[in-house]
Amino acid sequence: MTHADAAGPDIPGLVAASDLPGVPDEFQRLWTPHRMAYIQAGADAMRAACPFCAAPEKSDEDGLIVHRGRTVYALLNLFPYNSGHLLVCPYRHVATYDQATDDEVAEIGAITQHAMQVLRGVSQCDGFNIGMNQGRVAGAGVDEHLHQHIVPRWETDANFFPIIARTKALPQLLGEVRQAIADAW
């Protein structure tokens, strides 16, 4: 096929690029079919069915829960920034930190500390990003249910994916990570 043949797939003898899945081009592809559930659900579905209210009603494995406390629980982020990315959520459906009770605030802190110890032991991470995005304007993906992020970081976790392709490569499956963290809890 010549450059002139790129005019369109209706030219006799021309094969459309979509019919040549094995032909290399300048694009690298990272297949992430698990994200389709999130994409297809859309923002309205996330608001209608809060994932942080639904998780505790499931088994620990199905809800990705690693620890259940008295007023809050810890679970893996379904769409992690790094392997072992945990969330700490109150069972109550509250949107912001100032709406949490004193007991919830204290348990969020205690579970966060323990999660850091567990993650250091399980993954030998070198540091953490810890934080809460309060409201959609602040970057909260689920803005109607309070949750704190605990993201393990490693000195050696920098690679070209996040820098060049704005992509994260996660070396472990969520189920394996959840089991390791839950076992170490």
Automatic annotation (TrEMBL):
Transmembrane segments: none annotated. Keywords: Nucleotide-binding. It comes from the Bacteria. Residues 51-160 form the HIT domain. Substrate binds at N77, G139, A140, G141, V142, H149. A motif (Histidine triad motif) lies at residues 145-149. Coiled coil: none annotated. InterPro entries: AP-4-A_phosphorylase (IPR052908), FHIT (IPR039383), HIT-like (IPR011146), HIT-like_sf (IPR036265). GO terms for molecular function: catalytic activity; nucleotide binding. Pfam families: HIT. The active site is at H147. Signal peptide: none annotated. This is HIT domain-containing protein. It comes from Microbacterium protaetiae.
